[in-house]
Amino acid sequence: MAEAEEQETESLEESTDESEEEESEEEPKLKYERLSNGVTEILQKDAASCMTVHDKFLALGTHYGKVYLLDVQGNITQKFDVSPVKINQISLDESGEHMGVCSEDGKVQVFGLYSGEEFHETFDCPIKLLLFERSWMSRWKSSVLHEGEGNIRSVKWRGHLIAWANNMGVKIFDITSKQRITNVPRDDISLRPDMYPCSLCWKDNVTLIIGWGTSVKICSVKERHASEMRDLPSRYVEIVSQFETEFYISGLAPLCDQLVVLSYVKEVSEKTEREYCARPRLDIIQPLAETCEEISSDALTVRGFQENECRDYHLEYSEGESLFYIVSPRDVVVAKERDQDDHIDWLLEKKKYEEALMAAEISQRNIKRHKILDIGLAYINHLVEKGDYDIAARKCQKILGKNAALWEYEVYKFKEIGQLKAISPYLPRGDPVLKPLIYEMILHEFLESDYEGFATLIREWPGDLYNNSVIVQAVRDHLKKDSQNRTLLKTLAELYTYDKNYGNALEIYLTLRHKDVFQLIHKHNLFSSIKDKIVLLMDFDSEKAVDMLLDNEDKISIKKVVEELEDRPELQHVYLHKLFKRDHHKGQRYHEKQISLYAEYDRPNLLPFLRDSTHCPLEKALEICQQRNFVEETVYLLSRMGNSRSALKMIMEELHDVDKAIEFAKEQDDGELWEDLILYSIDKPPFITGLLNNIGTHVDPILLIHRIKEGMEIPNLRDSLVKILQDYNLQLSCMKPSLQVEK
């Protein structure tokens, strides 16, 4: 029996889904299941005629005059043999302790479910609506609310308002004022009221929803203003929404500001062109002033729908839980709002895994049937099946989190499909750490096909993730086939560095002339390892090498560096020059050697060196400069050694530079030098011009002028004489104040 019921439930869900999902990708709003257990047993022998819903239980009436009390799973808790004929309507009080039942034979019974209290009344012809009230003597007092317009088809009571429908329309009675406050006429009088009965539903204490035929009206009961009272009721009804539906209405229920409508559907067969009863529909609609908007629509495969009429369907609901009961003679179906688990089910069914994962994360406290991890794993599998390996691998980070076992499982899955490279960038590198074999497996994959990718992983992955010696050996094996591969060599150096095998790492870096060599030396204090590699370092980057050596004199002495560079004098010069720039005295023992080095490799810095060094042997320097005919350097050395006249002579004879000669004479401030300069210049007009322009403040110009041969053309002589007079007048003006002071 249970298996049959389960199959029927699945059939109901499948048929419901097929109805609209074939045409639309919109998610359904409701889900359905059959009310089974005791209900199944009841409807195998009897037929349901009506039902009412209480917060605590359900009450089901049948065609054979039985009333069953059921729990929400459909199990029978009580049974009442009320009448030999059909039960038309059941009513329960708010406490759920009293039940009223009316049957087809005109009998009305009210009795206590848990007491012996009971009331019976029989009506021969159900054409009146009577109100029974207890008097102060606990006797029942009746009053006629309405009569004379045919059968009363439906009654709904809420608060102080009673609504009922007869053949002419719908009336509302106010118990407080004892007045009928409205009459809403029936629209389509062509429909038989017994076949297409009116559906009434109170949304709240003042809002009545009327469904009749294909028409829906929403009525609002309002208080009348005192100034409008006169002889009118204190309340009136305003129709706030009115619209037509596509099918015949069998039941109505509120859902927040929307409506749930149960519709009876007739369709025409394409083959026979005959009208037949189709599956009933349950729609959620949004009422507007004069129309409505369909939110969702489901066709329901209830048992025996082919034989049912509009009057055979009823819609009952439980306000607190948004549960809706579709009642038909052979079936009771429960519709309920879909929860987050249902929403996720639908997303997964539509393969919208990203949205399903997001929905589960947002509502993780509310979902009961789904787990975020399970959804995530299904998402990864889906992406892999689609061939979106990179996206699948990226999602692993978020989905697998810190679960090492799941990470390892997924890595092996990626290996099976040949996609280890795809997952490698996203592997955890700490918290969690996977087994070394996992990382080694991926490194070997790259080493076989992608040296650059392999090198990237070695740089990015901490060395303790894998067995370093295993990977070193693998790289060395590959270098046997390609010994000059720079990528592999550099990577091997990095592996050696992590393994603290700095000597091998340094050797590779120097061979590759890699920029990281200096960083490696500094970081790991490898100065003892580079004493015999100074030339290699200098060849690679002399500036960085010299700075490093000078910064670490305590680890590699100046003497050791100079000795290592003995066969490379050009590098020796670079080192000693930088040493001299830092400190003029530290390398004094090498200053004699530096004279030759400057002369050979860096003449522009020779003269500054000779000027700044106090440890340079002048005779040796003079010898070298004279051998190389370095005039300026020789002039400086002769002057420094006290041989100014030879220095001046060299300026005049070798450089032919009168300005330099005059400047030199000025610096020495020696009369004999000026005499030598005048004698050398007397037959050279350009020199005479230079002297006339510059010696005015050092030597009496008359001495020079008297020696100029008569008739010699002197360039710019007039200007030179004017300058001499100006200098003379300037001297006189400077002397006058001092003469006045003496007087």
TrEMBL record:
CHCR repeats lie at residues 546-690. It is found in: Endosome membrane; Late endosome membrane; Early endosome membrane; Lysosome membrane. Residues 1-33 are annotated as: Disordered. Its main location: membrane. Residues 128-337 form the Vps41 beta-propeller domain. InterPro entries: Beta-prop_Vps41 (IPR057780), Clathrin_H-chain/VPS_repeat (IPR000547), TPR-like_helical_dom_sf (IPR011990), Vps41 (IPR016902), Vps41/Vps8 (IPR045111), WD40/YVTN_repeat-like_dom_sf (IPR015943), WD40_repeat_dom_sf (IPR036322). Keywords: Cytoplasmic vesicle, Endosome, Golgi apparatus, Lysosome, Protein transport, Transport. The keyword Mitochondrion does not apply. It holds the Pfam family TPR_Vps41. PANTHER family: VACUOLAR PROTEIN SORTING VPS41, VACUOLAR PROTEIN SORTING-ASSOCIATED PROTEIN 41 HOMOLOG. Belongs to the VPS41 family. Plays a role in vesicle-mediated protein trafficking to lysosomal compartments including the endocytic membrane transport pathways. This is Vacuolar protein sorting-associated protein 41 homolog. It comes from Equus przewalskii.
